[in-house]
Design goal:
two-stranded parallel sheet, 450 residues
């Protein structure tokens, strides 16, 4: 359940404040009079801070502060994983969604951290221990409900190639962080275009993996809400003819460009540390055809609806991750709470509801796409609160971020302010990240008690 903002007296609040001071001190921050987000922006500047992402998140400074502290802790402070491996794991995660922006960013930081440049040739050039993360990376990115304790056991028990439990938790948090951040990058149009032909947009999805609910057969996210026992299903996305036609036209044009484009030659890194070899994102991806599939189409004999009442972030995930990777639980928990507390009165007013009700509708809709159910929530509210076009946008950014483009961000949702659009994308980022963490941490818990 999305958590309402609380006062600074929350028992985890003081811990987060202390961590903020520790990170600022380690980053060489200035005096106490400086704003926290400025301290962390300065600290990350020398490491290739994600400028475009920070600019978008800057619409909500309190969230930017929390995000930067969490990311800095994950990538640059003491933890179970070596620094170069952290950035390589981030590359693997971003490549699952073909996010060139994040891949290039972390490739540069990987080299600055002393990483072996040969690893940037692809997964065939990395140690087996890192390569073995490929399976859980792809499952978490696209169908996290398939993560099982067998995935965890396999990684922890492969002789000299095995991971420690602390290392694996660090890696899982990094994977979830970068998958979700890729959604934000594409959702807010941070992914840069490539040359005069524009950014290489992936080809259309295969008929078995369409991202617009495939209403022809009554399937998709609307069908899943029906499966949860509610009387009303979500509206058919097939009614959005203008949106579908525009995206299909973009896909066809891109496909034509890709057929005539000459093969891209692998290039070496130059002395400045800019990584041209990272342009070939396919070299970091195992099983590239594996993608999101509507949860409603799962194998019901093997996968059940995830009940938050049985395993939640607040009661289970927080304590586990914080125990195995010191303090990261506090930072993640604060980030979830900050995004829940962001002001969105204007956005919710247009929908005729309270801000908390609107945000919970978005949060639960996203979790529903990944098979996570709240027994105390009436899913008919999603249909009432979220307009059809908004639902299409949310599902695309959440499940198929590489299908999103700047035109969708700029030209749709005309009634929303820029900061409101960013706010919705922040909700997508955090809801998606928490969904992946819930499945991964539940699998780790099951492994530990088995």
């Amino acid at each position: 359940m999305i958590v309402c903002p609380q006062s600074m007296e929350h028992p985890r609040g003081s811990r987060c404040q202390r961590l903020q001071g520790q990170v600022a001190k380690a980053s060489g921050g200035g005096g106490e009079a400086e704003r926290p987000q400025l301290l962390f922006a300065k600290a990350l500047a020398s490491r290739g801070r994600p400028e475009a992402v920070a600019q978008q998140m800057g619409c909500h400074p309190r969230y930017l502060d929390s995000f930067l502290r969490t990311q800095h802790y994950l990538l640059h402070l003491d933890g179970p994983l070596p620094f170069d491996c952290r950035h390589y794991i981030a590359i693997m995660a971003a490549a699952r969604h073909r996010c060139r922006y994040l891949v290039n960013l972390h490739a540069r930081q990987f080299l600055r951290a002393g990483g072996d440049a040969q690893w940037l040739r692809g997964l065939d050039s990395v140690p087996p221990k890192l390569r073995n993360l490929g399976e859980i990376n792809k499952v978490l990115a696209h169908r996290p409900w398939l993560v099982t304790k067998q995935h965890i056991e396999k990684l922890l028990k492969i002789s000299e190639r095995s991971w420690s439990l602390a290392e694996l938790v660090h890696a899982v948090v990094l994977l979830a962080h970068c998958h979700a951040l890729a959604s934000f990058v594409f959702g807010c149009g941070c992914e840069p275009e490539e040359g005069p032909g524009g950014r290489a947009t992936p080809k259309p999805l295969s008929p078995g993996a369409r991202c617009f609910c495939e209403a022809a057969g009554g399937n998709g996210c609307g069908q899943e809400l029906l499966r949860l026992g509610r009387k009303r299903s979500l509206d058919s996305c097939m009614e959005l003819d203008p949106l579908r036609e525009r995206i299909q036209r973009i896909h066809l044009e891109t496909e034509g460009r890709e057929e005539t484009r000459p093969p891209q030659q692998e290039r070496e890194e130059d002395l400045s540390g800019e990584v041209a070899g990272a342009a070939n994102l396919a070299c970091y991806v195992q099983d590239p055809d594996f993608g999101y599939q509507d949860f409603a189409r799962r194998d019901e004999e093997q996968t059940q609806v995830f009940r938050v009442q049985d395993y939640s972030w607040e009661d289970h995930g927080f304590s586990l991750v914080n125990r195995l990777y010191a303090d990261i639980g506090h930072l993640l928990d604060e980030k979830f709470r900050v995004v829940a507390g962001l002001q969105s009165s204007a956005l919710a007013k247009r929908q005729g509801c309270e801000p908390s009700v609107f945000k919970r509708g978005i949060w639960n809709y996203i979790h529903c796409m990944f098979g996570i159910r709240y027994d105390d929530y009436d899913y008919a509210e999603v249909n009432h609160l979220l307009e059809r076009m908004l639902k299409v946008y949310i599902k695309t950014v959440t499940c198929y971020p590489e299908k999103t483009n700047l035109e969708m961000f700029d030209r749709f949702w005309k009634q929303f302010k820029h900061s409101e659009k960013v706010h919705v994308n922040l909700l997508i980022l955090e809801a998606r990240m928490q969904a992946e963490l819930l499945y991964a941490l539940q699998a780790i818990t099951q492994y530990m008690v088995s």
